[in-house]
C-alpha cells in the first residue's frame, strides 16, 4: 500500500475538491423519504443543511453533527453516542461515521484510519452512485482524511476533534469528561501500568505494543503493598492504568476489596496534574468477587456505576465481569447487558465450586481497549488472537 502523506484533516483547504461521483446532486426530482430528502431540501428548498439531520433526513434537529456540517435529531444523537467509538474484531469501527448504522460499509484505505461509511450516506450526501465507484477503488481515502474538507454536500467540520469532544461532554450521560482524540502524527505509544494481572499479551495482540517492545512501555506489578507515589512517578508517566480482582476460585491471601483500594490508591498517583489535556485512561474489572458493600464503595470511589459484560454461548451465561472505566464506548449497549443479580450470583456460585483452573477476565474486556486507537500509536493493523 502506498504511503499516505501526513495531512492535517482539520485544516481549512485552499479550494473545494469534489470527490468522485459528487459533481451533481439532483434537486429537480421530488424525493421519497428519509435521506433522499437531504439533497432535495438543500438544493431545491434552499434549506440550511444544519437544519436537517444528515443521518436520517429528519427536520426535527436536536443539535449539530460532531464530525460533519449538518444537524442530528435526538434518536440519531443517542445512536451516535452509543456507537461512534465501537470497534469490530478486525480493528475497524463497527458503524458508519456519519449515521452510526449502515449494513454495507466502505473502509478507509489510510492505514492510520479505522473509520467506515455506509453506502446510503455516501450516495445521499456525496452523490448518487458514489458508493459503487468508491467500492471499485483499490485504495480509497475517507472524508476525514482527505485534504479537501468538502465532497458534495458532505463538509467536514473545522476542528472536528474538539467538536466531537464537546458533543460527548454536552450530550452524554457519562459523568466523566471525554478526552479529545489525537491526530495521527501526534500519537505516541501507550504507556501502561498493569496491576495484579499482566495485560501485555492482550495489548500486543491489539497492536498497541510491539513484540519485544521497550520494557518501559508496560509496567506490571502484582504486590503493591509497599508501592508509594514516588515509585509510580519514577515508573511513569502512564497513559493507561489497568487493574482487576482475581478470578473466582483463584487462591489468594487478600480480601477482594484490597484490590479495589490498592487500584484506587495507585490510580491517584498516576493521574496527570489537574488541568492537563493529556489523555489518561483507566479500567478496573471485578470478576464477580466483590460483595454489595464493596461494589457501592467502588462506584463511589470511581465516580460511576459499573457495566456488566457477559459471555453468553448457546443462550447460556458462561461468564461475566463488572467494569468501571473512562475509555470511550465502554458503556455502549454493544458491550454490556442487563444481567440480573440472581443470574450473577448463581454464576459466581457455580464458578466457585468448579474445579476448572481459574482464568483472569481479560478476554471479555479485550476489545474495550480498541477505542484507544484514536489516541495512541498502534504498530499493526492486523489484530491477532491472544488466546
UniProtKB/TrEMBL annotation:
Transmembrane segments: none annotated. It comes from the Eukaryota. Keywords: Metal-binding, Nucleus, Zinc, Zinc-finger. GO terms for molecular function: enzyme activator activity; enzyme binding; zinc ion binding. Coiled coil: none annotated. PROSITE patterns: ADD. InterPro entries: ADD, C5-Methyltransferase, DNMT3_ADD_GATA1-like, DNMT3_ADD_PHD, SAM-dependent_MTases_sf, Znf_FYVE_PHD, Znf_RING/FYVE/PHD. GO terms for cellular component: condensed nuclear chromosome; cytoplasm; ESC/E(Z) complex; heterochromatin; nucleus. GO terms for biological process: autosome genomic imprinting; chorionic trophoblast cell differentiation; epigenetic programing of female pronucleus; male meiosis I; methylation; negative regulation of DNA methylation-dependent heterochromatin formation; negative regulation of DNA-templated transcription; negative regulation of gene expression via chromosomal CpG island methylation. Pfam families: ADD_DNMT3, DNMT3_ADD_GATA1-like. Residues 41-173 form the PHD-type domain. It is found in: Nucleus. This is DNA methyltransferase 3 like. It comes from Pan troglodytes.
